[in-house]
Amino acid sequence: MIEALYALFWTLLIFLSLKYFRVFKTIGLGDWDLSVAFLIKVMAGAIYIFIYSKIYGTHMGDLNYDASNFLYEGKLLNDLFYKSPTAYFKLFFNIGEQSEIVQQYLNESIHWSRGNLMLINDAKNLVKIHSLIEFFSFNNIYVHFIIFNFISLVGLRNIYLAIRRLTLVSNRTLFFAVILLPSALFWGSSVLKEPLVIFGIGLLLRCFLDKQIRKWKVALYLFIACVILIGFKPYILLCVSLAIAYFHFAAYFLKDRSFLAAILFVAGIFSSVFIFSDARRKVVQFVSRVQFDFENIGRGGVYAKNEQDSILYYFSPETYPNLEISGDYFYVRKQTTAYKFRVGYKDQEVRYLLEDDGRQWQIKNRIPGSDSYIRTNMIGDSFRQLIWNIPQALNNALLRPYFTDPGKNLKYFASAESILLFAFLILAFFKRRHLMEHEKRFILSCLMFVGSLSLIIGWTTPVLGAIVRYRMPAYFVLLLIGFILIKPNTFWKKVN
Question: What is the pTM assigned to this prediction?
Answer without folding.
Answer: 0.90
